[in-house]
Amino acid sequence: MSISVQLNVNGKSVKLDCPANTTLVDLIRERLELTGTHVGCDTSQCGACTVHLNGRAVKSCTILAAQCEGAEVTTIEGLGDTDNLHPMQEAFRECHGLQCGFCTPGMIMSAVDLVHREPSINERVIREGLEGNICRCTGYHNIVLAVESAAKKMRN
Amino acid sequence: MYDFNYHKPDSIDEAVQLFLGAEDGIYLAGGHTLLPSMKQRLAAPTDLIDLAGIDSLSGIEDVGADLEIGALTAHDEVATSSVVQSGIPALAELASLIGDAQVRNRGTIGGSVSNSDPAADYPAGVLGLGAEIVTNKRTIAADDFFTAMFETALEEGELLTKIKFPKPESAAYVKFPNPASRYATVGVFIALTGSGVRVAITGAAPSVFRSTDMEKALNSEFSVEALEGITLDAGEMNSDLHATAEYRAHLCTVMAKRAVLKLL
Asked: Taking the model in full, what pTM does it have?
C-alpha cells in the first residue's frame, strides 16, 4: 500500500508518497538523503537512529513514516552545521566524546533531549539517560564528560 | 517487514470496525513490540490500525480512589506524571524502569498490557494493584486478564481503552533487569491494599502471576523474615540464556524481600 505523508523535517515541510512499511529512518536517509542519522542494529536497541519527534528523542528505526503525519522531526543535520555547531556537538568535539563516530549522531540527539528534560545533570543521570544508546569504542567516559560540559553551556 | 494496509481511525468504533473488516488486522499503539516483530517476520498482519488519532485513549486522571490511565499513555508520561507520582508512586517508578528513554517516549501502557510479554514490567503493576482493564465492551479484573504467555482475556478485535488502578495504602516494585534490554528477568510488585497484601511476579514464568504463599506469609507478618524459606517451584519458571529456572525461582524471593524492605 502506498501512503502519502506530510511532515516537517529540520524546519522544512516535506510531502511525499511511500510504501506503508517505510520506517521514519528510511524516509530520512533514503528519501531525504539526510544520512547523518545512522542505522546500527535496526532492532530498537542501539540508538544510532535517534532523532527528535515533536521534541522528544525516539528511535526512528521503530517508527513508521505513516505515524509521523504532521510531526516535527529534527535530525542531527537540523541541530547545527560545520560553521555553527550546537553546544552538544561542540562539546563532543572538545571532549573527544567519539572515536569511530558511528553512534555519535544518535548519542548527541539523546543527550540534547536529556539536558532539556532533566532538571539536574550529573554523571549518574547522564549514564542512565543514555542507556538507550550504545557506543562500542569510547567506554562512555568522554561522552559523559561532553554531556556534562554541554549541559553547562546550554543552560547559560 | 512485509507490506500492509495502514489505517488511522479517529474513533474507537471506527477502529474496531476496521479491525473486524480486515483479513488479519492488528492495533498499532507505540509499536515498540509490534514493529520489531514485523521486521523479524514473526508478525505479518495485513492491516495496521493506528490508534494515535483517537484522543480519548490518552491521558491520566485522578478519580478519587482510582487512577485512570488511557491505553495510549506513554511510559514516560506515567513515570513523570505528578498525579501518578503522588497517587501511586510505585507505578511511576515501574514506568521509569522500562527499557530506555527513547522506548519510554513511544511505548504505551495499553500496548504493553495487551501484549502480555512474560518479561514486561506493567503486568506486575496491573496484577499487583488489582487493577481493572477497561475495553470497548467490558471491564476485566486483572486477576482474570493475563491468561498465558502473550495471551490475555481480550477477544478478537476487543480494544483495551484504559486501566483503572485502585490507590493502595503503599506499594513497591523491585526488579532484576536484564542488563542489556532492561526487561525484567524477575520483577516483584507488592501492594498493601484494604483487602490485604498482593504480590505479583513478572519475568519469572510464562505469564505474570500472584504468589499466594508470599501473600499468606506477608498477611500474617509483614517483614522480610516472613519470606524466609519460601521457595517458588522452579518447574513453573522460564529458562533461557539469561537465567535458568532455578535462578529465576531464587530471584523471586530475593526481589520480594527487597520490595518488602522498601515498604518498611
From this structure: 0.96
Predicted pLDDT of residue B180 = 85
CA-to-CA separations, B93 to A148, B76, B82, B190, in angstroms, rounded: 25, 10, 12, 13
The residue of chain B with its CA nearest to that of A109 is B102
Chain A to chain B Cβ contacts (< 8 Å): 79
| Domain identity same for A26 and A52 | yes
Pair A60, A7 in one domain = yes
By DSSP bridging, strand A50-53 and strand A72-74 are: antiparallel
- Tell me which of B96, B100, B182 to substitute to probe the interface with A (most A C-beta atoms closer than 10 Å): B100
Domains of chain B with bracketed CATH:
1-54 (3.30.43.10), 170-263 (3.30.390.50)
From B180's Cα to the closest Cα of chain A, the distance in A is 9
The answer to whether A62 contacts B6, with C-beta atoms less than 8 Å apart, is no
Q: CA-CA distance, A113 to A109, in Å (whole number)?
A: 6
**Exposure string (b/e) for A126-141, b if CB count within 10 Å is 16 or more?**
beebbebbbbeebebe
Q: How would you write B213-247 as a 3-class SS string?
A: HHHHHHHHCCCCHHHCCCCCCHHHCCCCCCCCHHH
Q: Determine, for residues B31 and A21 on separate chains, whether the beta-carbon distance falls below 8 Å.
A: no
Question: Are A22 and A52 in the same domain?
Answer: yes
A20 and B48 within 8 Å at the Cβ level: the answer is: yes
- Please state the φ and ψ torsions of residue B28, each to the nearest 5 degrees: -110, 120
From the list A20, A59, A110, which residue is nearest B4 (CB)?
A20
pLDDT tens for each residue of A62-84: 999 999 999 999 999 999 999 99
Total residues found in chain A within this entry: 156
